[in-house]
TrEMBL record:
Domain of life (superkingdom): Bacteria
Entry-linked SUPFAM superfamilies: Winged helix' DNA-binding domain (SSF46785)
GO molecular function, one term: DNA binding
Protein name: Transcriptional regulator
Record carries keyword DNA-binding: yes
Annotated Gene Ontology cellular component terms: cytosol
């Protein structure tokens, strides 16, 4: 399994914001420069994160976005589930699989998915940056200067 780029970008945005001072506002251009990403994709991700009320956005000359919640309260299972969409990992019904009546693949993979999200539920965005916040801050700045 591989997470969508959309989810990866969303987690990067949250990590970046989690390493910044509380009053810091980022913008799409800055995030794109730091991570070398497409503005089109980042715009969509930022919009989604704002709809989830994970980031607060402000328009205008001094606009941008910042975290709307403490990073300790943003659980990874929630973020990944929301950005990935909570679809089945194995699609047995469209088209309907001939093996469906006797197959255990969907239930086994479904149990793995549940364990995956259960594992992620133990972590927050704070856990992604807690032990390496200073190093990440330096990398984010170095990236801009490169």
């Amino acid at each position: 399994m591989q997470l969508k780029k959309y989810t990866d970008y969303g987690l990067r945005v949250l990590m970046y914001l989690g390493c910044q001072p509380k009053e810091h506002r980022a913008n799409v251009r800055l995030i794109c420069e730091v991570f070398n990403l497409s503005a089109n994709h980042v715009n969509k991700v930022v919009h989604h994160l704002a709809k989830l009320e994970l980031i607060a956005t402000r328009r205008g000359k001094h606009g941008g976005f910042s975290l709307a919640k403490p990073i300790e309260s943003i659980r990874l299972d929630y973020v990944v589930r929301q950005l990935e969409g909570d679809e089945e990992w194995i699609e047995c019904r469209t088209p309907e699989c001939v093996a469906l009546p006797a197959c255990k693949l969907n239930s086994i993979v479904g149990e793995g998915k549940a364990l995956f999200y259960q594992h992620l539920s133990q972590f927050t965005v704070a856990d992604l940056v807690a032990d390496n916040k200073t190093e990440l801050q330096q990398l984010f700045v170095v990236n801009l200067q490169a």
